[in-house]
Each structure stands twice: as structure tokens, then as C-alpha cells.
Design a protein that fits this description.
Blueprint lengths: L2 E6 L3 H16 L3 E2 L8 E6 L4 H20 L4 E6 H6 L1 H6 L5 E3 L7 H11 L4 E3 L21 E5 L1 E2 L10 H5 L3 E2 L2 H13 L4 E5 L19 H10 L6 E5 L8 H9 L6 E3 L7 H7 L5 H14 L4 E8 L6 H14 L3 E6 L17 H24 L5 E9 L6 E5 L5 E5 L8 E9 L3 E6 L4
Parallel strand pairs: 1-2, 1-3, 3-4, 4-5, 5-6, 7-10, 10-11, 12-13, 13-14, 17-19
Antiparallel strand pairs: 8-9, 15-16, 15-18, 16-17, 18-19
Length: 445
């Protein structure tokens, strides 16, 4: 059978979508190629959140077209968000592209690849909407001794932040039933998975249109309780949320659900009320800080991470300084700091006072310095502490080390030892380099 290689750009949801496509291709008998040079089919699962992500995928495809000149039978395709937003224009500008499939048709990719290989058909473009497409991302390709997995619980977004293209590429919010998600997690647990991460564009607004509150608990908290109760599941995480989705029931879940890890991702985007309003973020600086206070009051050990955009249209030096001061006040454990990138069909792209890349880069660097300084100090204070980590497998940075994560989502490296793989291990932190901790196992006498 032909072999397939998928390269994924962007977020965890894209990774999860690629896994679904690979599972369906494998079920048809396709081999999974380890490199693009050995593949008969190469698919790029794309991201549209920033222009750089799109340009990277486009440049990659231009390179792959050179491979097709040597191998005319090679099948090339775009999947995902950029495919959804650009559709037929991708084939028009890159005529060697055979397949363009949008975000609601991942479950059709295997059949389309069959058509292209067996019938040598003309290029296929499918970016149509499909009811219940959120229910099609449910199958997994697990590696031996894999102990963590992503679980897609919903698709789409109704928030319409002025800078964001996601509502256009992913559609409106739609959620899967709790029972179906729980059954998926049961299958994962039966195959050795100990930690699941629930995925959604605005994950903590899960089910708000489809399912009722019960005993004052939102559908999302009901789902967390159901997943956490699955035998074998020892850790539950979720991403990516919105501050307005952190209601009282969810905040208290970090105390009431033992399996729910003490890691809260709380996207900020800006510390200026003026810019937050222009972004259509529906909260203020004051409300954000109050939310941080409420979360830390319930669980003082929580790890707090965020997203920030610098260089939003019309942002002034004063606005930026407000973001900078908020970051210092909160003391995040990690922050993903992005330079604003205009996205077509979004209101912000049409706003005046667009910033130069020089200004965005300067502000980006200043926030990184604030972040790094605080993280280094807090991480150094952990040296000597004993803590539990879940060993996920080989480190991306060293063949001689395994890597794992604390419940607060801090990366820890230890000596590679096969008997520790997949285990929750108590370790002592011996060294810190800021975002990475080094440890040795605590010997139980």
C-alpha cells in the first residue's frame, strides 16, 4: 500500500486532527511514512492564526512541488485552517496541489486520497460545512507505552475577537455529548493512557448551547467530573480556554476534582482596557486580576500561563506599559507572546494605526524579559523540592534523558531509564535553567 506523511502546523487541535486522519488512512491499509522523502502522499495540516504560519506552509508546498516533478504520482494536499480560508485559490496558485480539505471534512480525507491514487482524478477541493463534524474526531493512533493523549470535545468559536480568524476557519461552537467523550477516554485508559487533555477553541464554554446545567454545574464541569472518574485516568488538563469561561464552579473544580491538574491557562491578550475593548475580549484588566486572585485563593499552588498580543492596531506605549505591569503583577509561569498579524476578514485588519514590525519586536522582547526574569526566580526556588511527574518518554533535547511534567505543567528532565517510562514518579529537583527543571528520582526505602 502507498505510504502517507502528514506535517502539522499550529495548535494541539491541529495535532489531534492529523492523528484522526492518520488513523483513518491506517485503517484503509496505508503505511505511515517516517519522512516525506519516503512518502507517496504528503499532506500539510495548516494554521491560519498568523501570517507566518501560512507563509511557512506555502513555502513548504512550493518545495514539495519540486519533488513531484521527479515523481509525478506523488499526491500533495493542504488540510485544515488555511485550506478552509483559501480553498480553490490554493490549487489555482499551486497547480501541483491535488487535495484541499477544510476543517469540517477531516473524516473525508482518506476517501479522497483513495480517489486520487486509484482514479488519478482531478484535484479535489472540499471546504463545505458539515453538521456534526465535531463528532468525527474520536479515533487515536497510540504509540507503545503512550500515557498522554489529546481529546477533542468541541469545534468552533462564537467569540469573534477582532484579531482572530478562527470563527471563519473553524465555524461556530458545537460540542460532543459527554457520554461519547467519556467512552473515548475509557478506551484510551484501557490502552494505558493516564493523562488526557481536553481540546476546544474555547474549551471552558463547552456545551453551553447544547446541554443544561445540573446542580449549578456547567456542562464543562460535568464533563470534567465524568472524565476524571474513568478508572486509570490520573490526570486531566484542558486547553484553550477564555477568561469568561472561568465561573465559580470551574474555579472550585481545581479543588474538588483531584485528577484535575493545577494548571490554569488564562489568555490575557492585553493589560489595557482600551485595547481589550477594541479586541472585543469582554473583560477588563480589573476583572482579569480579580479572576487570578480567585483562582489562587482556591489553589495557591496553581501554575498560571497566558497568551499576549503586542502591536495591536492603535496600541500606544501607555497601553503596552499596562500589559507589562500586569505581567509583572501576576507572575506567569509561561506566556506565549505573539506579534499582532493582520488576518483577512477580521475587523482588526481594517483598523488604522497598524504598527511596524520594529515596534512589535521591541515590545515582544520587553515582555519576554519580564517573563524570563520571573520564571527563572520561581523555578530556582523549586530546587530541592520533591514533586511528582508523569514520565512521557524521551526528551526532545537529549537522548540520555526522559521528560515528564509536573501537575502544574512544568517540564522536568531525568536520567533515561526504561522502567520509569509511563510512570508517575516522585523526584527531587536538582537544577533549574528557567523553563526546564532537572531532577533525580526519590528512592523509596
Amino acid at each position: 500500500m502507498p505510504s502517507v506523511y502528514i506535517k502539522t502546523y499550529g495548535c494541539q487541535m491541529n495535532e489531534r486532527d492529523s492523528e484522526q486522519v492518520l488513523q483513518q488512512l491506517a485503517a484503509k491499509g496505508y503505511e505511515l511514512a517516517l519522512t516525506e522523502s519516503s512518502a507517496d502522499v504528503i499532506l500539510l495540516n495548516t494554521c491560519s492564526v498568523r501570517d507566518m504560519a501560512e507563509q511557512t506552509a506555502l513555502n513548504k508546498m512550493k518545495h514539495l512541488q519540486g519533488m513531484k516533478k521527479k515523481n509525478p504520482n506523488l499526491v500533495l494536499g493542504f488540510l485544515g485552517c488555511m485550506a478552509q480560508s483559501q480553498g480553490q485559490s490554493l490549487v489555482d496558485s499551486l497547480p501541483d496541489v491535488d487535495l484541499v480539505v477544510g476543517t469540517q471534512k477531516f473524516h473525508q480525507v482518506a476517501d479522497y486520497v483513495d480517489q486520487l491514487i486509484t482514479n488519478k482524478s482531478e484535484s479535489i477541493v472540499d471546504i463545505a460545512e458539515e453538521n456534526s463534524s465535531q463528532n468525527t474526531i474520536r479515533d487515536h493512533v497510540l504509540k507503545p507505552k503512550q500515557v498522554t493523549a489529546f481529546v477533542s470535545i468541541m469545534q468552533g468559536c462564537n467569540m469573534h475577537c477582532t484579531f482572530c480568524i478562527v470563527p471563519f476557519t473553524r465555524g461556530s461552537e458545537r460540542s460532543r455529548p459527554i457520554a461519547e467523550i467519556t467512552q473515548e477516554v475509557k478506551i484510551l485508559a484501557a490502552n494505558g493512557v493516564k493523562e488526557v487533555t481536553l481540546l476546544g477553541q474555547i474549551v471552558n464554554l463547552y456545551g453551553r448551547h447544547e446541554f443544561p446545567k445540573i446542580d449549578g454545574k456547567s456542562p464543562f464541569v460535568q464533563l470534567l467530573e465524568s472524565v476524571a472518574a474513568v478508572p486509570g485516568i490520573q490526570r486531566v488538563r484542558f486547553t484553550s480556554p477564555h477568561p469568561i469561561g472561568y465561573r465559580t464552579d470551574l474555579i472550585h473544580a481545581f479543588k474538588n476534582i483531584p485528577e484535575l491538574c493545577e494548571h490554569v491557562h488564562l489568555p490575557l491578550q492585553s493589560g489595557s482596557n482600551r485595547i481589550l475593548k477594541a479586541m472585543h475580549r469582554s473583560y477588563t484588566r480589573e476583572r482579569y486580576l480579580k479572576l487570578v486572585e480567585e483562582i489562587r485563593k482556591v489553589n495557591p499552588t496553581v501554575g498560571l500561563t497566558t497568551d499576549v498580543i503586542v502591536g495591536f492596531p492603535g496600541e500606544t506605549e501607555e497601553d503596552f506599559q499596562q500589559t507589562k505591569s500586569l505581567m509583572k503583577e501576576v507572575g506567569f509561569d509561561q506566556a506565549f507572546i505573539f506579534r499582532y498579524s493582520p488576518r483577512k476578514e477580521t475587523p482588526a485588519a481594517e483598523m488604522g494605526d497598524q504598527h511596524t514590525e520594529e515596534t512589535k519586536l521591541r515590545w515582544n522582547q520587553e515582555l519576554l524579559e519580564v517573563l524570563n526574569s520571573g520564571v527563572k526566580e520561581r523555578s530556582q526556588s523549586m530546587v530541592g523540592q520533591e514533586i511528582e511527574i508523569l514520565i512521557e518518554g524521551e526528551s526532545k533535547y537529549s537522548d540520555e534523558r526522559f521528560e515528564g511534567r509536573t501537575r502544574t505543567n512544568k517540564l522536568v528532565l531525568i536520567e533515561a531509564n526504561e522502567r520509569w517510562r509511563g510512570e508517575i514518579l516522585k523526584v527531587k529537583i536538582t537544577e533549574s535553567t528557567g523553563f526546564t527543571l532537572y531532577a533525580e528520582p526519590v528512592i523509596q526505602l
